[in-house]
Amino acid sequence: MARQSLSRALVTASWLAEAVRAGRVGAGLRVLDASWYPPKERNARQEFKERHIPGASFFDIEECRDKSSPYDFMLPSESHFADYGGGLGVSNDTHVVVYDGDEVGTFYAPRAWWMFRAFGHKEVSVLNGGFKNWVKEGHPVTAEVTQPTPAVFKARLNRALVKTFEEMVQNVSSLNFQVVDSRPEGRFRGTELDQGLESGHIPGAVNIPFHSFLSETGHEKSIEEIQEIFREKKVDLSKPLTATCRKGVTACQIALAAFLCGKRDVAVYDGSWSEWFHRAPPHYKVSELKRSKA
After folding, report:
1. How confident is residue 39, by pLDDT bands cut at 50, 70 and 90?
2. Residue 33, phi then psi, degrees to nearest 5
3. What is the pLDDT of residues 111-169, one digit of tens each?
4. Res 290: pLDDT
5. Which residues lie across from 32 on neighbouring strands?
C-alpha cells in the first residue's frame, strides 16, 4: 500500500496552515472542530466561538448521534449523518480535516474521522497534534464564524466497520476477531471506576491505552513505533480486529493507529463498555476487583 495514501489519514499543521493561507478552505476542503469535553470542565462550542482555525466549522458530536439510544454518541442514521455533513458544506468530493482542542493533542477528532469513514467518506484526515500544537506553532486563529454553503452529501454505512453488541457476544466464543480495548489500564482491569460504572473488560480483549500511540507533544507516534506497540501486545494486524473503549470514542484511536500501519478495516464496537456493562451477563464482564472479592 502506498505510503502517501496512508499519510492522508493525517495532515500536518504546516500543510493545513498553507491551505488556509492559500484560501483553499471551502467546498473542496472543509476543516471541522470536533472537540467535546465534560460539561463541568470545558465548553467546546464556546471555545470554538472564541478561537478556532480560520474557515473551520464546529462538528457537534452531541447533535450528530443517535439521540434515541440510551448510550452515548452512538452513530446516527445514514440520513441524519448525510444532512449534518451536508449542512457543514461537506460533499462526497470534499477533503475533510478534523481536529480537537484536547490537552492530550487528539481525543475526539479520531471519532469524527471514523464516523466519516464509516459512512463511506474516504477523503478525511486528522490534524496531527491537534489545536494545541496548531496554537503552539504560531498558526493563525480567529473568532470569526464562517457559514459554509450547504452541500449534498450521500452517506452509506459500511457495516464492516461497526460491531454490534450481538456480534461482540458471539465473538466471545467464536474468536472470529481480535478485540483491543483503548481505556486506561485500571478501568480495563476493573480496579477503578469507569466514569461512574463498575469497570472491567470483555473476555479475550487486549488492553492498549489510546495515549500509547501519542508522543509527549501530542502527535501520533511513527508508524514503526505504532507497529511495535501492536507487536508487543501480540495483536496481529493481518487478522480481523475490533476496537472498544468506554463509549466508542478512544477506540477510534486504535482504528487510526492501525490505519496508519496499512490496516484500513478495523471495526469499532460502537456501544463499547457503556453498552456491554448494561447488557452482558455477569460472567462476560472480566474484573480483577470481582475476582479479589470472590
Report:
1. confident
2. -90, 110
3. 999 999 999 999 999 999 999 999 999 999 999 998 999 999 999 999 999 999 999 99
4. 58
5. 57, 98
Q: How far apart are CA 7 and CA 33, in angstroms?
A: 20
Could you give the residue numbers annotated as active site?
245
For residue 241, CA distances in Å to 81, 161, 254, 255 come to: 25, 10, 10, 9
Nearest-angstrom CA–CA distance, 27 and 34: 19
281: Cα within 13 Å, side-chain hemisphere: 5
**Rounded to a whole number, what is the distance in angstroms from the first to the last CA of the chain?**
50
Cell triple for residue 277? 456493562
What residue type is 192 in one-letter code? E
